[in-house]
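Dear support,

I submitted the protein below through the web form. The confirmation email said the job was done, but the results page showed an empty box. After a refresh the structure appeared. I'm attaching both so you can tell me whether what I see now is the final result or a partial one.
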Amino acid sequence: MNAKPWLAAAALCLTLPLALAAWRASTGVGHWTEAERTTLASLHISRLGAAPADPSNAVATDPAAAALGKRLFLDTRLSANGRVACASCHAPERGFQDGRPVGEGLATGSRRTMPVPGVAHARWFFWDGRKDSLWSQALGPLEDAAEHGANRVQLVRLLAQAYRPDYEALFGPLPPLAGLPVAASPLGAPAERAAWAQLSPAQQQAVDRAFANLGKAIAAYERTLMPGASRFDRYVAAVTGAPDADAQALTEAEVRGLRLFIGKGQCVSCHAGPLLTDQHFHNTGLAPRLPASPDRGRAAAIGRVAADPFNCLGRYSDAPAESCSELRFIADDDPHMMGAFKTPSLRNVATRAPYMHAGQVATLEAAVAHYVSAPAAAVGHSELGRPGQRRGERVPIALTAAEAADLVALLKSLSGPVCESRDGRPC
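What the results page shows now:
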């Protein structure tokens, strides 16, 4: 009568290793090489750490500045028609983007709205890198005729009317506004530019400094916006032995896609690090939005960032010149920058269709197909390998239809929460 329990226990002992082996095979946890584990560990969200300091913005980490910046970020009065805010394109409920092929403000823009979460870890801003700080980037759309269409004097008046106590607690007194025109800006309509030219240099600099401080407050808020862990991260934790592990967080198809991502798909060569971006600029042969006038990308932006009065070396930066080495030594003759655009983060990529710098690609499936087809570039030279050619370390990306589907499945596992983080660490 005691044999049956014993036999059942023996059978369990025999079947458990088999079940464990099947489980490990299905999840792939036990079938990664040491080199692959090292690569996977580098992609885990926990590797992000705190956001780097921004010496050009003295209030970058000030909670009071972030609180003011959040109010400004949501304020539609920072526009010519009173209906466009930063949040109009960087909508919090949509993961701080807008789901459109190109931005829509007062008019239609020419490029896709970039994701904000994790932007505190970037070095260059916009698709072409024409700004070298987050606060300087925040200023650009405010005076862009297709975005906010506002002007500097208008914006400083708004600070005085609606935000004076909070502004002056951070930055000191606002400039006197008596005698200033209603609208004036060096970048505005002809009448606004003419009014700006009538201001004294001291008046112009006082307005410019308040305008720069507005951008610094918005940047302090944007720095807090961070992505959080996804199913991908929980699986990588299981592979690498990190906390919060879940070896079954990915499906078998997603695990196969992950192998492609760090292997023959060559995705990790640009989508590296915990934000899944190398923060650099690449030409991948994307079809231009306007074929008759292809976008020159980074090549056209280098001169702009170097001449920008709101760059790291400008009078409104809080940084000493020695902290601006990337701007001081920027390469202005790199042929690889022609037609090159910034690598976006793949965090939450499944929620951000359409794709690429001008929304040229509608779906993730089409995005993967683009990299496999490797078309020639309309301007400059594509980095992608093509049959019979080699671009540096790149070889042609050859994927079967099933492999492409697995890779898309993996990309859909990269979605996680977005939160406000005081120190720029992930959620």
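Response: this is the final, complete result; the empty box was a page-load delay. The CA atoms of residues 129 and 368 lie 24 Å apart.
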